[in-house]
Structure formats: structure tokens, C-alpha cells
Amino acid sequence: MGFVYLEHALTVRDADALSISGNFIAECGSCIELVGSGQASKVTDNLIGAGYVGFSIFAEQHEGLLVTGNNIFPRGKSSVHFKNVNRSSITANRLHAFYPGMIDFEGVNKENLISGNHLRRDVEPWAPMQPYNNGKDDPYGLIHLRGDNNMVTANLFAFHVPAGSVRPSGATPVIIRVESGDGNHISNNRAVSNIAATRVLLSSTTTGTKVLDSATASEFQADTQNHTFRATP
Q: Which of 7, 32, 62, 146 has minimal CB crowding within 10 Å?
């Protein structure tokens, strides 16, 4: 199906075994919103583009959700937003955004897999839209992780933002930010950046995080001692 110029293109509440596949959902305020709760559903092979204050893909209190094979383009305030989602997968998507928080976790999200995605972040090229953004600064991270025992592995990041466009001015952008939680695993991720960027940042409230081959020593920041780190050679 095609959804164009709608404030909320597709909102589904409390659905199990739902399949959203093969749709064009663009120029909408929000594209796909899975609200309430759900289990064993999938969002696959869609073309998606939301507005700068809207969701591209939003899911709350889901279990076993598969988000894969989607091509998600600007200007959504996030590409994939999980709120209290467990044992779900974000895999093999192409994500393009003009703002941080491309994959954004809210609440407590457990045992999710983020793997094999290509994330491209650059700046808004169209002058009439340049005054607008999603309200998040670049240290927020392209991936903002909250929860326990999640795995972020084998993703490719392309960060191409001029130094003068970084928010706030003079800040160091972050690629993967682990904001809270225990036992998260970050491994074998690759980031290409045109300016200095922190590849992985661990906030002070995190514990037991493993960071392997995803940053050099100079590209890694930990505000806690409770972690394991193996630098990219």
C-alpha cells in the first residue's frame, strides 16, 4: 500500500502476529506506530520517511518484534524507536537521517539485537527545513541504548556532518551511546566519520558492558569503571 501526506499513516494497538510489509509510507507525520503492546510481529521491506517531529517506526511493550529489510529515509525524529521492548531484532535495514537518535531506546529494553544495519547521518540539505530538528544534540548518539543484555554488532555507520553543523557547537558527536543498563554487548561495529567522533560512550549508570573491536582507545569514552573494553587494532 501507499501512504502519503497523513498525520499518522498507520497506528496499530495491541496486535499479535502482525505483518507490515512491502509498503511505501512517506511524507507523513508519523509512519508506523505499534502502541499498547504486542508480540511475534514484523515490520519488513518497507520504504519509510516521517516528519521531523514524528516516528518512522515506533513500538512499545513488544516482544519478539522483527524490524528488517526496511529503507528508512529522512526526516523522522528517529528511524526506529523502542519503548520497553524485549527480545526483538533490528537487522539489515538501511537508515538515513539528518538528526541524532536514529535508533532510540526509551525505558528498559532487554535482550534486543541490533545487527547488520547501515546507518548514514548527514545534514539537512534543503534550506526551508534547515531551522528544524528533532531536539537532540549530537552527543546523544546515533544509537541511544537503554536496557539490559542488548547486543549491537556488525553495523556500519557513515557520519558526515561538517564541524560547524554539530550541536551544540564544539561538542564531540557520539556514534553508539549506552545510556543505562547492565550487560550490554557492543562488538565489531565500524564507523566512518569526516570529523572526530566518539565511537562508543558508556554513561556512569551502565554496568557490565562489553565493548569489543568497535573503537580505538582514543575513540572510546567510559564514565564508569564497570566494563570490559578491547580496542580496535
A: 7
